[in-house]
C-alpha cells in the first residue's frame, strides 16, 4: 500500500484483539474512520481508495 502511494503518508499499526479500522486525517483537522471488519481484500482496497481520493 505504501509503495503504491508514495506521496501519501500512510501509517499501518498491528494490534492483537482490536477491531480493524482505517482512519483518514485531512486538512483543517477533519478526520474520518471506517470499520474494516468482515470486508474482503477488494472491499478494503475500495474503502482505502475512497479515503485517499479526496486527499489528492
TrEMBL record:
Signal peptide residues on this chain, from the entry's feature table: none
GO CC, one annotated term: mitochondrial inner membrane
Residues of the Ribosomal protein/NADH dehydrogenase domain: 1-55
Pfam families recorded: L51_S25_CI-B8
Membrane topology of this protein: Peripheral membrane protein
Region of interest (Disordered), residue spans: 34-56
Record flagged with keyword Membrane: yes
The keyword Transcription regulation appears for this protein: no
Location of the protein in the cell: Mitochondrion inner membrane
Keyword tags: Electron transport, Membrane, Mitochondrion, Mitochondrion inner membrane, Respiratory chain, Transport
Domain of life: Eukaryota
Physiological role: Accessory subunit of the mitochondrial membrane respiratory chain NADH dehydrogenase (Complex I), that is believed not to be involved in catalysis. Complex I functions in the transfer of electrons from NADH to the respiratory chain. The immediate electron acceptor for the enzyme is believed to be ubiquinone.
Sequence similarity: Belongs to the complex I NDUFA2 subunit family.
Protein name (database record): Ribosomal protein/NADH dehydrogenase domain-containing protein
Amino acid at each position: 500500500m505504501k509503495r503504491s502511494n508514495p506521496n501519501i503518508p500512510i501509517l499501518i499499526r498491528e494490534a492483537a484483539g482490536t477491531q480493524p479500522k482505517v482512519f483518514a486525517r485531512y486538512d483543517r483537522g477533519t478526520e474520518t474512520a471506517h470499520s474494516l471488519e468482515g470486508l474482503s481484500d477488494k472491499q478494503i482496497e475500495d474503502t482505502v481508495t475512497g479515503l485517499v481520493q479526496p486527499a489528492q
